[in-house]
Amino acid sequence: MVGIGWFLAIILGALAGWIAEKIMNSSMGLLMNIVMGIIGAVVGNFLLTAIVGATLYGIIGQMIVAVLGACLLIAIVRGLRRA
């Protein structure tokens, strides 16, 4: 996550994972919410930088990127489980 500390990254990751869990109608625990939120933020930032050439800055921008990235990860995991 761009421009924020580790502690805030964990908090935002947990919140983003929880929001993505609710959006995708999934059932995960707190630890998986944190992991999915943080990895989702990394994946989201990578994709956004690759496609647009920049990423969203600030806490709200990073939250949006993290939620979208976590939703993408949940969708990928669901697709892999079905295959």
TrEMBL record:
Any one GO cellular component localisation term in the record: plasma membrane
Name assigned to this protein: Transglycosylase associated protein
InterPro entries xref list: Transgly_assoc
TM stretches of this protein: 6-23, 30-53, 59-80
Localization, UniProt: Cell membrane
Keyword tags: Cell membrane, Membrane, Transmembrane, Transmembrane helix
Pfam families: Transgly_assoc (PF04226)
Protein's membrane topology: Multi-pass membrane protein
Keyword Transmembrane helix: yes
Family in the record: Belongs to the UPF0410 family.
